[in-house]
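By way of example, what follows is a protein record of this kind.
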Amino acid sequence: MRRTVSALLVPALCSLAFVPACGGDADTGSGGETPVVPVGGGDAASLGDGGTVGAADTGPRRDGSFVEDELADASYPADVRFTWDSGVNDAALTADAACAETSATATLRPLDLFVVLDRSGSMSETSPADTSAVWGTNDCNVSASPANTSKWCLAVNALGAFFGLAGQGDRRAALQFFPTNLELSSGVLPEAVPNECNGTAVGTPAVALVNIPASASSLVGALNTATPNGSYTTTEGAIRGMNAFTSTPANRSATRTLAQVLITDGAPTACTLRDNPSLAALIDAQRSQLGVNTYVVGMNGANYTNLEALATAGGAPVHTTQCAAGTASCHYYDVGAGSASAFSAALRDIQLAAVGCTYNLPTPSRGVIDPDRVRVSYQSGANSTDLARVTNAAACPASGNGWYYDNNTTPSAVRLCTSTCTTVRADGAARINVLFGCLRG
């Protein structure tokens, strides 16, 4: 059996709600149809996940001949068509041989963000030249009228607005600050503080994942409580903490996208790892092993060479809109002093980039999907193009089409390469078709 559902893919979204379908997979070895005995009035035999055929129905005949039968099923919408067949043993994956063939209106895939905000004393500064600010001063709460223009004040207000923004789909957020230990303000070296550099402290968030904007008040409360009084920039602890949080099974879901966001205004000044290659390796491992991307937001005072290395390792997309002066393109997001518009644009782009063009794999009603027998095509009007499968995001072509699994060992979603995703988003008539082949017995 195969079920076909067709609808247009709207351009500004990134996930497909697949409808499961799977047919009987008895191969004949010759590509011919295997007779199926009808249910109800004839000898009983299962015909799939919905609908039965009575003796008076057209369909498989007792003499062995086969008539393909399309059945209506009251449990599904009227525009859903069921076509029963036996799973033709085709050399290439086609609609005849597919375990599930689906094309449906896409919606933004649910998104979970773990945001980690730098609270070092330099965030108290009100301008790049202002180095006289006392650590912990220029604090403020989320407010319609911020108390000052420090980087800290602008950052917490921008995050507060983002957490409270409605109409952005199904989102959750968790929040933590670094460094976490208040003793750092008195000059205690982070290396001497338990759990500061190993990530344990940051990995336990100030606010765990909550729905936004419904529970934005808990996040705003944490922003209001925190102060910018850390004596050091413990970037290693922040990265290890993000990785620990996003590695925890309880914080992960196969049907949601999980990403981490680092916001900082400085280069590492403490912990063992301070160089770009070492810190970037921590981020790259999280992306390559678990599919968790890291996005980096820099404020005045940041070393953008450092941030570029981290953002590139994290799988952030290249762009030309928010890069440091004199840089044509980059992977991080520069928000300068932290203006509301710059922060808003960066967080919006991060949200879109994190979700990407991601399509959940369906759960077939019969049979088991063979992850090596999948055909993905992009249709624009009457033109259809098959997309090539690549190993991972790093193997995607700079231009051209391709797709990859979120996890090659236990895949749960198909992801389009960045260049393909860009094309699809810009095409109002785009449709993504995916055929899943069943494992053969």
